[in-house]
Write a structure and sequence with these properties.
The protein is α+β, with helices and mostly antiparallel strands and 282 residues long. The protein is 25% helix and 26% strand. It has a single domain, classed as Clavaminate synthase-like (Double-stranded beta-helix, 4-Layer Sandwich). The strands form four sheets. Strands 1, 2, 3, 4, 5, 6, 14 and 16 form an eight-stranded mixed sheet that branches.
Length: 282
């Protein structure tokens, strides 16, 4: 697919530290001609919004392929298939919707893996009447602005992450059987500070962070909460208020994100695709 010389591709930053909008036509996106530039903006800005671009599912899948390796979802009927994944609280559409309730708290996707996904691409299909915005914070910028003396201490630390910790945020008194099911997903020890191959560094935090290795539980919790507060202060955050047809990409390796509350019976529906990870936590 060719792109005309006058094809529209307008880029604008939405906050000083995080987020850009790109206004362009579908042909430009689907051609892949701007894929390298989009990836560069994503790495630098953390989040890209394509306002009301209105890609179909097939077009979103094709666009995802232009940016990297398509990450297939797990689950019945989805393994190995190029498909969008429904983000909804409606269990008729997504039978494991309850697991998504952890997404209402700050997190990085893939902390149970050594190589997390590179990015998620999400399009709005149905909106809640109120609420349901998505917030993103820049964990590169949050790291960069920490005092140098503190950085030297934090770089030495390792943190145990567990999926079950994030589930306790929304269901603090699960049955033992439910807890055992969550715990079967295992745990993973990750650096608190991700030293990326680019030379940049970012904080690895979020709802799956269980305990700093070698640190008293109370001291660990205090540090993790303080750093989360630091990374999610307004100057590092972009809040996206969705319109129908919006598509948003976020760099999962340099941001955290969360959905804001909304009525779970509202029918809110997002369609997500993902890019395979290209770099392990280090």
């Amino acid at each position: 697919m060719s792109v005309s010389a006058d094809a529209r591709f307008d880029v604008a930053d939405v906050t000083p530290t995080i987020g850009s909008t790109i206004r362009c036509d579908k042909a430009t996106l689907l051609s892949g001609a701007k894929a390298g530039e989009i990836r560069q903006i994503l790495e630098q800005r953390g989040v890209i919004v394509f306002p009301e671009v209105n890609l179909t599912d097939e077009e979103q899948i094709a666009f995802t392929h232009t940016l990297g390796t398509f990450a297939h979802e797990e689950g019945e009927g989805m393994a190995g298939k190029d498909a969008v994944y429904p983000i909804t609280m409606d269990e008729k559409i997504n039978p494991i919707a309850s697991y998504l309730k952890g997404a209402f708290f700050w997190h990085i996707d893939g902390t149970m893996s050594d190589k997390p996904i590179l990015a998620s691409i999400m399009s709005s299909r149905r909106l809640a009447p109120t609420g349901g915005e998505t917030e993103f914070c820049n964990t590169y910028a949050a790291w960069d602005e920490l005092p140098e003396a503190e950085k030297a201490q934090l770089e030495k630390l390792q943190v145990v992450h567990a999926m079950w910790r994030s589930q306790l945020y929304w269901q603090p008194e699960p049955s033992h059987a439910t807890l055992q099911q969550w715990m079967s997903r295992g745990k993973n020890t990750l650096p608190l500070v991700w030293k990326h191959r680019s030379g940049r560094k970012s904080l690895v935090l979020g709802a799956t962070a269980l305990q700093v290795e070698g640190m008293d539980i109370a001291e660990s919790e205090s540090l993790l909460v303080r750093l989360r507060d630091w990374a999610t202060q307004p100057r590092f955050v972009y809040r996206h208020t969705w319109k129908l047809g919006d598509m948003v990409i976020w760099d999962n390796t340099g941001t955290m994100h969360r959905a804001l509350p909304y009525d779970h019976d509202s029918g809110r529906l997002m369609h997500r695709t993902k890019l395979e990870g290209e770099e392990a936590f280090a």
